[in-house]
Amino acid sequence: MDKQDIILRQYREIKSALNDKLILQGYAPVHELANDEVFGSRYMIWSNNMEAMRLTWDGKEQWFILEITEDLPLHALSRWDEIVVTPFNPGRHTAADGNAITDDFIKNLE
Questions:
Q1: Per 3-state DSSP, what percentage of the chain is helix, strand, and coil (rounded to 5)?
Q2: What gap in Å lies between CA 45 and CA 27, rounded to an integer?
Q3: Partners of 57 in the beta sheet?
Q4: For strand 63-69 and strand 41-47, is the pairing parallel, antiparallel, or unpaired?
């Protein structure tokens, strides 16, 4: 499996776990963007109409980040506050590391 596949698998794992948790908390997915031309960066946004949460894979910086904003409706200059940031090296992280990363993102929602 190449590095981009490992990253995409980890992103999908985190996104799926967050989606399950956030839907139970009244959020709904509102926007997703994947930009393979820009280091494979991608993000997903959920909102409950009072605040929004964003999961991002920053391909240049090589990290996953979960952020929150109350600046709705969203616009290009919305201020996002970090909840958790986790560096990810697809050549070094194991499947167990990936599970721990996903668990850490979920724990930070509580």
A1: 30, 35, 35
A2: 10
A3: 42, 64
A4: unpaired
Task: With respect to residue 35, please indicate whether it lies within any of the assigned structural domains.
Answer: no
Residue 76 lies in a domain: yes
**pLDDT tens sequence across 62-106:** 999 999 999 999 998 999 999 999 999 887 877 778 889 999 999
Give how many domains the chain has, as a whole number.
1
pLDDT digits (tens, 9 = 90+) for 23-70: 999 999 999 999 877 678 999 999 999 999 999 999 999 999 999 999
Expressed as residue numbers, the domain containing 89 is: 3-28+46-107
Please list the alpha-helical segments (H only) found in the chain: 3-24, 95-107
